[in-house]
Amino acid sequence: MASGKPTDASGTERIRWYDEEQGRRRSRSRPRLSRANSNDSMAIRSISRNAQVDPAVSLPIHYRTVSFGIEESKGKERAEAIRAADATAKDLGDLEWHTIAADEVSSRLTVSPQNGLSDEQVKRRQLEYGRNAPSPPKTNRTLTILGYFFKGFGGILLIGSILVFISWKPLGEPAPALANLALAIVLLAVFFLQASFNMFQDWSTSRVMASIKDMLPEQSQVMRDGKLVHVPAEELVPGDVVLIKAGNKLPADMRFVQISSDAKFDRSVLTGESRPVPGTVNFTDENYLETHNIGLQGTHCIIGTSTGIVVATGDKTVFGRIATLTNEPKTKMTTLEREVLYFVLFICGIMITMITVVLVIWGAWLRKDHPGFISVSALIVSCVSVAVAFIPEGLPIAITAGLTITANLMKKNDVLCKSLKTVETLGSVSVICSDKTGTLTQGKMSLTDCAMGSTNVSVEQLQEQLRDEKGSESKLRSAFGQLGALAALCNAAELDASQADIPLAQRNVFGDATDTAILRFSESLADGNVGYFRGCWTKVFDLAFNSKNKFMIRTFTCSRKEALGHTMHAAGAAQFGDNDILLTIKGAPDVLIGRCSEYITPAGETALMDENALATFEHLKQVYSSQGKRCLLLARKLVSGGSIKNAVEAGAYEAEMSELAKSGLTLVGLVAIVDPLRPEIREVVSTLRGAGIRIAMVTGDFSLTALAIARDAGIVSCVHVDGASHLERNPDPLSDPTDSEEKGSSTGSSRGALVISGSELTLLNDHQWKTLTEYEEIVFARTTPEQKLRIVREFQKENVVAMTGDGVNDAPSLKAADVGIALGSGSDIAMEAADMVLLDSFSSIVIAVQYGRVVFDNLKKVIAYLLPAGSFSEFWPVITNVAFGLPQILSSFLMIIICCFTDCVAATVLSYEKPEADVLHRRPRNVKKDRLVNWQLIFQAYGIIGMTETLASFAMSYWYLERKGIAFKDLWFSFGKIPDYVTEEYYNARLTEASSIYFVNLVVMQWFNLMAVRCRRLSIFQHPPAFNRATQNLYLFPAILFALCMAFLWCYPPAIQRVIITAPVPVEYWFLPFAFGIYIIFIDEMRRFFVRKYPNSLIAKAAW
């Protein structure tokens, strides 16, 4: 990004990660992120400016996978993907910061490594490049704001408000009704109130996490104007000279110009390569993402010091570009959004039908036969009243408030929801794809067993035997001493030298978990002398572990001869010359054992590797793997100094060492490493499986190791486990396809257990994938990120899938899953991509699933509570007015009051309801069949409770008019004609009182409906609202009191009475509804009794 060379700057800025084709599969295996990862899987080979390169080969698999998961759409054509990938490959050829000399970097960026940038240069570059911070996610602000206002019923409310305003003036002239103005204002107020709730929901969820920014260090040591200053990371610009020391996070992408020999960097957060990467000044790889002379933003220095020149900031860094990709918004609707949309369409369908009926009646009959009954102004108000009656205006508010309440309850249980809508989605999850290391396991590896020759001992037994033989030079001490020495030399971990006096188990170790476990083992055998022993050897060459080679190599020369006797057998020590090289190697037994020509016996001497020895070591490896332990082989080779042809600095030296390591190795021993399960995992897995949720373990371990761990965790319980060969390539021609569809649509599964590796996944066809997803217990071993993404998408065809992950490479599958779940201990990009974060441990997922299921049940209760009074009972006064000429016995204004005031608070507190029974004992909801609003709920809300409340309210209102001298027979088909025996003033006053009675009757009966709707199966005596901590919901009683206060507020103050046309209600009409309310509780108790006693009866099938 040199200001002096724009072409170079643009070249360094052009980094893209896409995939060539959606269907490409890889057979490379990828260990779990906390282990080591393949350098090959990150390989971007040298791209000359004129070369033709296959983009799929040139792009790193991890970064291609990020793009694969986020940019791919179902409608994208293959040609478009190829064109995008070709352009990407061309751009990658312009990256040169790592290949040019350090002096050239300084020249291009016009900076001195000794003095840094001047203040004037900094100001110019800040204007040019902006702040060193990731950009916020892309959003269409206009569409977002429109969504706030017009989601759900917003558009209908706004149109209704406008129409009522028109009805007031000018259509209401010359005597505009003040009640119409009040109704229009209230409709507009409700419109803005719903928009405010939508805005609040978006505002609160968008600020739940800012993990990408949190990942940047707050201060950096920077050289400016020849002075070392502390500068906020956000103010760095390309060309800044930054000093890094152990423990620092890198604030930007930088090219190293000075570095200490022991400097190492942890890149696991970006690449998944958990082994520390040594830093260099000269480039080690033509791949910008693999070379060791580039420091990547967000990674951190674990040891050593370095000085680097910033070459990319903000979104132009590798980290920033991945963050930008993972910030792409989801377009897929959640299960809750689909259910709410279904309900909105259902309500709108009924509403439009009823409005059409009103218009037809008016146009075909009333306008001709009763022209003075309903004017155009009154017709508009009547149509709006139908809309107001059918729309439960309080529902969006109640849903948003209820989800917020549930999210806060989950937060108290260390579950952080980034999106309120995913709360309910988690309750529908039928498959959880879970990582192993750090999720199911503790991520704290320990070496448990070791073997030399045919002797296999546990570490505890070995240490006990060595203590018994302390002070003597036994063969056991000599043999296992060689293993301990090799474990110390061929190891990238470092003990914290400042903690020499602290017990070994408590000392800090800098390095990945595998090397840490092996180094602790070596230190325990050497009685704390590993540091001195390592000092006796001078490291010449280091080839880090990667999953392509599956081994690491380190070569040494001896600087103190006394170390030879502890490192190798006596004959080898005697032959070792001053210039000779000790080649040490550690890696996978299946790769290295064929390269060994000798092995060390339990007596500490060498023996030829024959078939019996090979069989013994193979058996040991199988035993370790079957016990869920990771097996590593340690070997060495003595290389004559005179036989080495290339200098260490030459690029050919690595190839020569790799060639020497292909044969003639001496196998020193095998070690077994275990990562113990979290203590609570077995119970968590058992609980989730009891809830009907399948758990698929996705890991980078070998199949046998993965299966053993899965059995230990309870993920696999079947004695017989199928493999890839059991997946038929073609469907059975005799099978019924409808049976297959029914099986696929159900949450159950008829198949047993399956273990399959990543290499086998690449060979599956569509039918085999479909068969695979029907297994009850599945373990995926040796999988790549692309395969993990494919696994999620295949399960999603018939299931709601949750995905757990903690690394950058998990971001695509976290985004693709219905619910992405990250661990609080994971990487920040994973947390950014996820929908939910488990702050404490994996066990929190049980709480999350429980709340997800309870929230769905409670949302059904909210709707069942709102519909009888807020929809059905409000609709009939309008229809009886238009169709039968009766006066509209409930004013449109009071309809709004019921929906948004008296019922809304009570509906909201239903979110605090406890589950009626243990929701974790039933299977997940089938999102294709189990709807939020089904015919059973409509029948309950409209046909039973709604009809009861409507008839009771009509009866109370017209009985009151009868008592006041206005006979019902004189109102039937009156079409606005006032009886001759009453005055207009008296008539209107009594109708206003009757309207208020209808209103109060609904308010009081809804109190009893609130108590009844709490229980869908259990009796109210089994699930009481008070006096039982397991079932009580004390918020119900303040909600009832609030509804009472609202009824008084809108009916009794004279100033409000004159505006909205209400009147005081005689005292007896406050108490008569109690009888109707008790009837509601009684009939619902009877319904629940028959549901429990006769679960297969028609009543049970009709139960909501």
| Major beta-sheet overview | 9 strands, mixed
Helix content: 40-55%
Strand content: 5-15%
Shape field:
elongated
Quaternary state of the chains = single chain
Structural class: alpha/beta
The average pLDDT is 81
Radius of gyration: 37 Å
Q: Cα distance, first to last residue?
A: 65 Å
| Count of helical regions | 42
Give the uncertain stretches in residue-range form. 1-93, 208-217, 740-749
**How many β strands by DSSP?**
29
State the strand order across the main sheet.
10-29-28-27-11-23-26-25-24
Question: Would you write up a description of this structure?
Answer:
Residues 1-93, 208-217 and 740-749 have low confidence and may be disordered. The protein is elongated. The chain is α/β, with parallel strands linked by helices and 1104 residues long. The protein has 42 helices and 29 strands. The strands form five sheets. Strands 10-29-28-27-11-23-26-25-24 form a nine-stranded mixed sheet, with helices on both faces. Strands 12, 13, 16, 17, 18, 19, 20, 21 and 22 form a nine-stranded mixed sheet that branches. Strands 2-1-3-9-4-7 form a six-stranded antiparallel sheet, covered by helices on one side. It starts with 5 loop residues before the first helix and ends with a helix.
